[in-house]
Design brief:
about 70% helix; mainly alpha
Length: about 190
Amino acid sequence: IELLDKAMELNPRDTSPYYGWVLLYYYRDYEKALAILEQFDAYTPDFDDAPMGEDIHYLKGLCHMQMQHYAQALEEFNLYISHTSSTNGEDYVNVYTFVQKGRCQAHLGQIEEAAISYKKAISHYENCAEAYYYLGLNQVRTGDIDSACTNFTLARSLIEKGYKNSDPYVEYFHEIYIQQVDESITENCADE
């Protein structure tokens, strides 16, 4: 970190995309990561940067989400979705953006909108275990237990088949584990 801080002093434009990304994913210093990502984004205000291959608005949205600034996170996720959809088509949006968007909407009490976001993720990637799981949690909140149990079971099955988004070096913010799916099934699905 000390060396990255020094690199920021010497060459912030080239250092900030990597440093912001490292602070977000590895150090979980969301406030500092957001400040550095904002600084990097300001260098090219009319261009959607992609630090370490991930859209700048997606990364800033993750920072806000982790700090429980759900409305600001939604703004960033929507910017990413809108810009990418208009230039390349919605199929080029990282499918997990819709999962994160749905999670933020659920935290804001926008239950119907959250369901739409999870279903959008599924429409782009039918094996998105995370979208089925979070959709199931959403359905528990609305009292649609049968649908929730179906989605929990689908999520579990997909995880067992290896359809779980993961990285050997970092835990993703939407990452789910079979144990938590099992817990949701046990708590909500008596006949499963």
